[in-house]
Here is the input.
Amino acid sequence: MPFNLGGQELFILLFLALLIFGAKRLPEVGAGLGKGIRSFKEALNSADVKEDMEKLEKESTSTSTKSS
Here is the structure.
């Protein structure tokens, strides 16, 4: 896990989420969060983003070699 959370920390976070959103609303919040993360990952993996990143890397490399 990237945040290095243990069982107690996860339990506390789940409990706080339950208090804030309530038992009926918690599954809706989780589903919405999951959909948002999924669409963000899909956007990052799209060809357009990869092409733009490659262009930026080429531009930054050529700019840094010109300034040296």
In short: DSSP finds three helices and no strands in the chain. The mean pLDDT is 83.
